[in-house]
Amino acid sequence: MIAEEEMKGGDGFRTTGKKISVALLALVLMTLLLWDWETNPFVYTHVSTQYQSNTPPALAVSTITQAFMDITYEVCIHYDPNNSTESMEPAEMKTDGNKYQSLEKEEGKKPMQNGDDFEAEIIDGSFVNGTASADTKVCNYAKGRWVADSRPPLYAAKCKYMERKWACRLSNRTDFSYEGYRWQSVDCQKPEFEASHFLERMKDQIVAFVGDSLSREQFESMMCMLTGGQESSDIEDVQFLYTGEIHHPGWGYRFRSTNTTILYSKSTRLCDLEPINATDPNTLNAMHLDRQPAFIRENIDHLNVLVMNTDQHWRKTLVSWDNEVMYVNGAPVQDRNLKNISNAMIFKVNNIVKWLDSKLASNPNLQVFFRTKSPTHFFKGDWDTGGRCDNTIPMTRGSEVVEDESSDKVVAAAVKGTRVKLLDITALSDLRDEAHNSYYGKKSPDCLHWCLPGVPDTWNELLNAQL
Ligand SMILES: *[C@@H]1O[C@H](CO)[C@@H](O)[C@H](O)[C@H]1NC(C)=O
Ligand SMILES: *[C@@H]1O[C@H](CO)[C@@H](O)[C@H](O)[C@H]1NC(C)=O
Ligand SMILES: *[C@@H]1O[C@H](CO)[C@@H](O)[C@H](O)[C@H]1NC(C)=O
Ligand SMILES: *[C@@H]1O[C@H](CO)[C@@H](O)[C@H](O)[C@H]1NC(C)=O
Ligand SMILES: *[C@@H]1O[C@H](CO)[C@@H](O)[C@H](O)[C@H]1NC(C)=O
Ligand SMILES: *[C@@H]1O[C@H](CO)[C@@H](O)[C@H](O)[C@H]1NC(C)=O
Ligand SMILES: *[C@@H]1O[C@H](CO)[C@@H](O)[C@H](O)[C@H]1NC(C)=O
């Protein structure tokens, strides 16, 4: 495979010695998506308990007041892009100076129916002039374990902002033990998600999720986490402000009280799409590997938080089913290496990260996260060859992530040394094979998407922690 070979792509292709191992690439190629989007008649079996908003105050606030104790501080490291090989994220350190622990076929485009910064006081000398030295561990929320937690999910399954097909509680599933776990980071304490706190911090801001259906699940999860699933007159539908472009359907909601906008824009491969012959209704579309999706291009100056992903849709068959043709430099891809779809994805990921990094250089009000690959769990076959995910017992694959490095090497390598942050959910989600939609309410097992409430809620908790 591409493995030992250095990529030789077109312009802008990163060839800086980043070798992608076979295993990594295999991970990228591993799966596919292609689901029947029909709504099967679901059986109502449960109505979940309402979320009780009685979570403790966010970490930063509570810890500041107890600084004397062996409590973690949030430390904001100022990132010097010219002199760092790692993107810096908030780290935490202990006061005692110890090492701180610190495919789908998209359905119709209808809307859903349904603190204080501490100056790092360096005792062990691992922070040097505001830049972490090589052996310094910045806060890595992706490392940790799933722990049993009897608290109910943050929202009800009949959440207004969620597509019913994700709601396993509204399907014929009868086992919900997958809901009883929360992610616990080992290196640093993850703040509790508190909707009102999140909205307050995101006052007057726009948070955008851009990507495939897994991105949409994360967006829907976020909306449900912020509302507890309830409809409210505080929320205004603003999708009309942001959508309408061909191939870029999406949804958007504004919370009037804080003027916070949360939106989703579909872009399965994060490429700009353009009809090749605009007057031909049956035209193929150019899928520009080296141009950014229209939504991102047009809105980037107004966004405050961008969370994106791409992975599963990089399959030749999916590109052609979408009537798209890969373009680079304004012309169909000729380069032999770039014609290879896995190389094309690596090219795209690096291209958009580089482009966003340059935007970030001049926009202090923007934060960009690249969410890593969402793992699939098709056993005894793949998505199209009878693969299934029948297990309903949590943690049979283990409950801990001990690796420091992301298992999504493509995305991790691309963001390294840039201002784009890694939202690393791959390994922790990989432990949750029992939490997919599976065959509940489905003709064929969906071992790609997740039950909601469920695993994508944890992605948002990590996002919240890293903001
Ligand atoms: C892409 O390239 C790798 C090696 O560079 C090869 O193993 C793989 O089969 C190629 N994929 C396709 C679809 O040609
Ligand atoms: C980083 O390097 C660029 C180009 O070399 C320069 O324009 C910029 O001022 C530098 N920034 C810092 C913080 O040193
Ligand atoms: C980067 O930081 C190191 C250590 O602080 C310093 O010696 C070096 O001059 C810096 N390089 C640049 C380009 O700023
Ligand atoms: C940190 O900065 C100080 C003052 O600029 C300098 O004297 C010292 O050498 C720097 N430390 C390192 C490790 O570069
Ligand atoms: C609401 O937030 C948007 C940015 O998201 C900003 O442009 C607008 O001025 C804000 N409106 C008010 C009334 O503050
Ligand atoms: C574009 O499509 C129209 C309508 O099908 C056709 O008449 C025209 O020749 C096409 N143009 C090119 C350059 O192919
Ligand atoms: C749930 O319903 C689907 C069809 O909607 C069916 O294929 C599946 O076997 C059912 N599962 C159980 C556990 O009843």
Helix and strand layout, with pairings?
Blueprint (H helix, E strand, L loop, with lengths): L21 H8 L29 H6 L7 E4 L15 E4 L32 E2 L2 E2 L11 E5 L32 E5 L9 H7 L4 E6 L1 H15 L7 E3 L1 H4 L7 E6 L4 E7 L5 E4 L9 E4 L5 H6 L5 E4 L7 H6 L2 E5 L2 E2 L3 H4 L1 H22 L4 E5 L28 E2 L7 H7 L5 E3 L2 H5 L5 E3 L7 E5 L4 H12 L1
Parallel strand pairs: 7-10, 7-13, 12-14, 13-16, 16-18
Antiparallel strand pairs: 1-2, 3-4, 5-6, 5-17, 8-9, 9-10, 11-12, 14-15, 19-20
Helix pairs in contact: 4-12, 9-10
The site of one 2-acetamido-2-deoxy-beta-D-glucopyranose (NAG) has 2 residues, from loops.
Entry summary:
The protein has helices at 22-29, 59-64, 195-201, 213-227, 239-242, 294-299, 316-321, 336-339, 341-362, 409-415, 426-430, 455-466, and strands spanning 72-75, 91-94, 127-128, 131-132, 144-148, 181-185, 206-211, 235-237, 250-255, 260-266, 272-275, 285-288, 305-308, 324-328, 331-332, 367-371, 400-401, 421-423, 436-438, 446-450.
Keywords:
single chain; 467 residues; alpha/beta; Rossmann fold; 3 domains; 4-stranded mixed beta sheet; 12 helices; globular; disordered N terminus; binds 2-acetamido-2-deoxy-beta-D-glucopyranose; O-acetyltransferase activity; TBL_N; signal-anchor
Characterise this structure.
Pfam families: PC-Esterase, PMR5N. GO terms for molecular function: O-acetyltransferase activity. This is Trichome birefringence-like N-terminal domain-containing protein. This protein is of the alpha/beta class. It has three domains: 2-83, no CATH class; 91-120; 126-466, SGNH hydrolase (Rossmann fold, 3-Layer(aba) Sandwich). The protein is built from twelve helices and 20 strands. The strands form six sheets. The chain has a seven-stranded mixed sheet, with helices on both faces. The protein has a four-stranded mixed sheet with strand order 11-12-14-15. The protein is globular and about 55 Å long. It starts with 21 loop residues before the first helix and ends with a helix. It binds 2-acetamido-2-deoxy-beta-D-glucopyranose (7 copies). The site of one 2-acetamido-2-deoxy-beta-D-glucopyranose has 5 residues, from loops.
